[in-house]
Design goal:
- The chain has four helices and eleven strands; from the N terminus they run ββββββαβββαβααβ.
- With about 230 residues, the protein is an alpha+beta fold.
- It folds into two domains: about 130 residues, no CATH class; about 60 residues, Roll (Membrane-bound Lytic Murein Transglycosylase D, Chain A).
- It is elongated, with a radius of gyration of 24 Å.
Length: about 230
């Protein structure tokens, strides 16, 4: 007779960790553990295309414009009815669970002047991101009106630390966007030469970044180098 399999006592929960800095070295407060794991999660990928068509022709030849950040969608439940097995926040009022979630993902950090950068972990799956949308639907209540259950739908936009993103993409084409962080001693003509091979294009970069002066660069300032029109093109 086969021996019944024992169910795992310690089920891995989804944890959302907040950070102040892009390199995720400074914690921005308490983690939030999703108390009841969802049945799954959804990922979304998008490529932006230029689908201009030429006159007199049917169809088009789409041209690549950009790869949009990956999106992650989680739907989960916050509950304090005492009826759901494995609920790690059972006994905590739903309104307090919601506050913990908002503290971790949504509220602006006074020292960073923006919400936290997040790392979502579920077993071996990790996703660096920022909160995009958060919808909370209260569906069950106590006689006094306090919520006993809430359905949460959250979407997150992938976040890649700028230096890591540039290193990964290794983009040098004048037809693509790239991001550069200013280092000590950098000048706009020098950075423009490194990006396009032509320092004379620095005026276009200055205009795109709304720089008051091409000499007013600050260390650690992040500049975007857009597609540019080169002489002779």
């Amino acid at each position: 007779m086969a021996t019944p399999r024992k169910q795992a006592k310690n089920v891995e929960k989804i944890v959302i960790r907040p950070y102040l800095d892009p390199k995720q070295k400074k914690s921005a407060g308490a983690d939030f553990t999703i108390p009841i794991n969802p049945e799954g999660y959804a990922q979304s990928f998008k490529i932006g295309l230029d689908e201009k068509s030429t006159g007199g022709n049917q169809g088009s030849a789409p041209e690549y414009k950009f790869t949009a950040p990956e999106q992650l969608k989680l739907d989960f439940t916050l509950d304090n009815t005492g009826t759901i097995e494995g609920n790690v926040l059972d006994g905590t009022e739903v309104k307090d669970q919601v506050k913990q979630l908002l503290d971790t993902t949504y509220y602006m950090r006074s020292d960073a002047h923006k919400p936290a950068i997040l790392k979502i972990q579920w077993g071996l799956f990790t996703f660096d991101c920022i909160l995009a949308t958060l919808d909370i639907n209260y569906v069950l209540f106590k006689p006094n009106g306090d919520p006993l259950r809430a359905k949460v739908s959250a979407s997150f936009t992938q976040y890649v630390e700028p230096k890591k993103r540039v290193a990964t993409e290794d983009k040098h084409s004048p037809d693509l966007y790239r991001s550069v962080r200013v280092a000590d001693g950098d000048t706009l003509p020098l950075l423009t030469y490194k990006s396009y091979g032509d320092p004379a294009l620095h005026a276009q970069v200055a205009w795109f970044n709304e720089l008051v002066s091409v000499r007013a660069l600050k260390t650690d300032q992040e500049l975007v180098f857009p597609p540019v029109k080169q002489s002779g093109n």
